[in-house]
Amino acid sequence: MITEFDHIVVGGGISGLSRAYSLQKQGVKVLLLEKENRTGGVIHSKTTACGVTELGPNSLAITPLLEQLIEELGLNDQLIKANEVANKRYIYLKGKPILINPKTLIFSNKVIGFGSKIKLLSERFKPAKNVPNETLAGVIKRRFNNEILTNLVEPVITGIYAGSPDKLEYKSSMKRMYAMEQEHGSFTKGFLASRKSGNKREIVSFKQGLQQLTDALRDQLEHVSYEAVQFISLPNDKVVVKTSKKNYNANALTLAVPAYVASELLRPIDDQIAKLIDQVEYPSLLGWQVTFKTTSIQHRIPSFGILFPSISKKVIKGIINYSEIFGTNDDCRHFTVFAAANSTNKEQVEQAVIEEFRSVYGVKDEPIESIFTFYEKAIPQFNVGHSELMKTIDAWEKIYPQIKILGNWRTGVAIGDCVNYA
């Protein structure tokens, strides 16, 4: 087997696959190394009698580069676009799901009170600020108030990061919001400008699930090997990668792996950068992929899903209604449910998730399919200090130009961000 390459990519998730594909297009002789027996990383789809079950992300938002990639891979005819109901989002407040839209925010007291409505309407008149190390909670309190943070923002952020607005760094975790304030002076003005420009990202998936994208990328690559990397060294400005099977030599290397993996692989090269990278937090998460007969759902809620703020006192943090989003099978309804859990309480959380879900949707029958997945390290947290860490890594890569560091902990957790950066 060939052991000499121009470039080695470690990590077969969407970032690593996109990076290897891009390099190969440029004529680079590239090897992709993946420790598991499959590529795709957290993107993992399976097909059942009721359609597609997503064991990871459920959809993606189209970006110009993603659109180009999908066309190059010949997947245009495999795209499925989200239904109109995907624009409907619910938040569980006061014991029931409440549709979030301008009407319910301004003309009812279901979500926020009179004072918060005034804060929403007057936000456009507040001057923009650039506060160093500001948390997401801090900016929402600065521009709005605590009720808007608790009832609206916190559940949305939990749905994205499974983390805390009190720890997340504003300008790193919500780059679009930060840009709106800096460029337009307020979130409201920025949102309205975005609506007028028509730059609304389309939500899509594929007929065989999101894994159809990662599989298509893998199939384009000439050299893919399923081996765990054990050690990396840089002799004479070259790269040597030792795996469980052999040594590979290359001129350059891309690490497209989670932060905690990158930290371990970089430790023999630079212990200081490894310690910094190891500070990136990953909360644990419990996922429930469940399918019921449509007739079993007594309280059908056509929408993208439901988010649960901490004040709801529910174990469930979010429900994604995959079947409503993509209209896959009229006879079945597939959901993905997320809850905070750890290795010691996951069985207890599983039972609570089942009971809470049945209560919300009025389900009494047994599911057709039920899969619980525990993610010990789920989603990287862009906590305060993250932007400084990224600057440090940028500077480090100039000292070690043979190595490029990728992954959703660097680029943003959205699939489009991973592809764009890679």
From TrEMBL:
Cofactor dependence is on:
FAD
The GO terms describing molecular function are: oxygen-dependent protoporphyrinogen oxidase activity
BP-aspect Gene Ontology terms: heme biosynthetic process
**What chemistry does it catalyse, as a reaction equation?**
coproporphyrinogen III + 3 O2 = coproporphyrin III + 3 H2O2
Which InterPro entries has this protein been placed in? Answer: Amino_oxidase, FAD/NAD-bd_sf, Protoporphyrinogen_oxidase, Zeta_carotene_desat/Oxidored
Q: What domain of life does the native source organism fall in?
A: Bacteria
User: Record's family?
Assistant: Belongs to the protoporphyrinogen/coproporphyrinogen oxidase family. Coproporphyrinogen III oxidase subfamily.
What does the record give as the function of this protein?
A: Involved in coproporphyrin-dependent heme b biosynthesis. Catalyzes the oxidation of coproporphyrinogen III to coproporphyrin III.
Please state what the protein is called.
Answer: Coproporphyrinogen III oxidase
